[in-house]
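Continued from yesterday's entry.
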Amino acid sequence: METLPVALSHRRVLKIALPIVLSNATVPILGAVDTGVVGQMGAAAPIGAVGIGAIILASFYWVFSFLRMGTTGLVSQARGARDDGEVAALLTRALMIGLTSGVILIMLQMPLLWAAFQISPATQEVESLARGYIAIRIWSAPFAIALFGITGWLIAQERTRGVLVLQLWMNGLNILLDLWFVIGLGWGVQGVALATVLAETSGAALGFWLCRDILRTPEWRAWHCVFDRVRLIHMAKVNTDILIRSVLLLVIIVSFTFLSAGFDDLTLAANQILMQFVEITAYALDGFAFAAEAIVGHALGARSRSAFRRGALLASLWGGIAAVFMTLVFAAFGGWGIDVMTTAVDVRAEARSYLPWMAVTPLMAFGAYMLDGIFIGATRTRDMRNMMFVTVAVYSVAVLTLIPIFGNHGLWAAMLISYVARCASLLWKYPALEASVETT
């Protein structure tokens, strides 16, 4: 039986969060490289195609992000309760769900892509390039989705250095292959897709290796535990709530890209470049949100309300510090970052005109990310689902009101409003969550 982690402290929060921040930093860097290598072609259409193709696949995959979040919350609580058998069984369940879901996604790719492009108003050139991109990338779906479960399990174990190793390998390889396939061999958009397939496949293999200790024991294949009816029902409820919440969040994210495409290719390309910075914000704040998930979940499993409160506060404090730092960096160096990612003069100018909206995104968003982490760790997923309905409603009103008046500026304002609505609605639910933690 494992011993309980050390007492809550700034050091423990940072020990969990910083490897995640570093590992997550490679993901938007990868997105920036994807955009940058096709940006060297000197045209807006390839940039928009990679953006549209990536957001469609990310949307498909993000539907399964419940696997990462649900696994982290459930495993961290099992650790707090010192239930080692359930910790192992949860890994097996996550892998089974991930691999099976990826196969189903491959089988359903044609109708899913048809539906996606019916929604997207992109030009014929952008759509053609994006279809070629997706047709290649879809084949790594089982590995990409299984990685959600592996990552969630490692985070709950507070083994975030392993997550760092996994991301550095996978995204580093992807970047090198991007440069080789696109710049070296001239394979264009298809080269970007193939690089990602190879990286995700090798990343899944490394993920299995990182879990090798538990996979060498009989506990992971104790089928009476893996298929325990009560625990399966509980896991299904948690994952279903997160699934609905994720789909609702995707409504906001996907609509941002599709509404961008509805203006023109130039605006789409500019927004796609700025969204790389938004992803940097998301992945950095996720590091501290993940720390909150692991610590809060463990405290809940151990039935310690004081640890629950202190973990939530410490993680949020460091998340706020990170948000201020990122806003200052984007304000100072955002223009330089735009120039790095594209050589097209008109795209550079267009992106600069919307940079101020992006620069304040970390400050507007960090509260939502931290509360997400707290509620995920507590597996209070029903509240997350319900408050996301509220958030989508607020966002929709903002879109319908602001875009006709302010155009793309109105679209950026609506996205920031959605962050505020998400934070405020979950903050309203937090006191009841904390009060519900049983103490021993």
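--- second protein ---
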Amino acid sequence: MKQRNQFLFVLGPHRSGTSLVASALHTLGVNLGDRFIDPNDDNPKGFFEDEEIVRFNDRLLRSLSLSWDSFGFIWEEDFSAKRFKPYHKAAVTMIRDRFSNSSVSGLKDPRFCILLPFWKRVVSEALDVEVSYILGIRSPEQSVRSQRSRHIRDSDFHLLGRRNVQTLLLWWTYLHKALKEVDARHLLIVDYTSLVVAPELELQRLAKLLGFDIPPDEAESFSRQYVDPLLNRSQTPVKAAQRQDSSLWHYAQMLYERLHLLSRNDCIQPEDLQGVIEHIDVPQLEPLYLQELQYLYGYSYKKIISLRHRLIRSNQELGSEREKSGQLQEKCDTLIAQHESLVDQHESLVDQYRLLAREHEVLSQNYQTVLNTKGWRLLVLLRRCVTWPFSR
């Protein structure tokens, strides 16, 4: 019996090591898409995310009035609704174009955690494959600290990160959504710290999931190229933040520890995963979500006002620059007109010069002809020998 092709969803909250997991799959030869997003300071080794797919996910989220940093358990969407059909059709086309000829393929984007119901339907229609899931996890303290560093570097884009509890709520949101949708029988959990500390071992686990045999030198090459201890630079616990909303941090740590235990297993039983999901006490967290949404919306409003003022100043500066540009354009037009006039004068002078040069050439030829006549030569001889009567 022919083995079915495989498709992998690489899942996990932002700043949980999913990029490193994707780099491992890329090393193993998994087709992860067409053109990757360029590396930057956030991920110097690369994101391994298909740029068009990520942009598509952002548009899909905007159609839901959401974004990648929208946290909360309060929304439930029926992606089979009529208004999602154009998105579904476009996504099916993208998947077929990229992966119809690949035996092992997949996509990585943390946004899949909250959009997985949509993409499961897309892949099932586009490809005849067996779908598996790789969930990247990282301790909540490290994820929160890493996101805070992103906020400090670019607070205009990364609104999330100013308050650690909001980042932790997003961490909960992504895990909660993902764990409800994955099939435990086809799930592999990879702990970020384990991948950094023992990359060869974790690479072997991924290869086993795919049915690959990986040479030792390839595992060593992956470690040298992609694994850097400095990648795990957000290790210091955020103790100060944990003093606030300590119950949330307690539950988050318990969730992480349970998932960490499951990350040691190559085969996860559905009842084990169900036990992890049931541990999440959503009703108890909802008031905290609503409170932090108010904080985030208030902060977002302040950022919008600040950006609006910056935009007004920029428009004023742009208007001043446009006025200067208009004056310079007038001067430029004048100089161009003067240049064209001088070019015309130059062409006229060149024509006159050529005419005079031709006349000069004719006179020179005539003069030479006269000098070469016998009469002229005789006259010159007479002037040398006979005194000229008209001379004084």
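The longest strand covers residues 129-137. Strands lie at 5-11, 104-108, 129-137, 187-191. Will compare against the first tomorrow.
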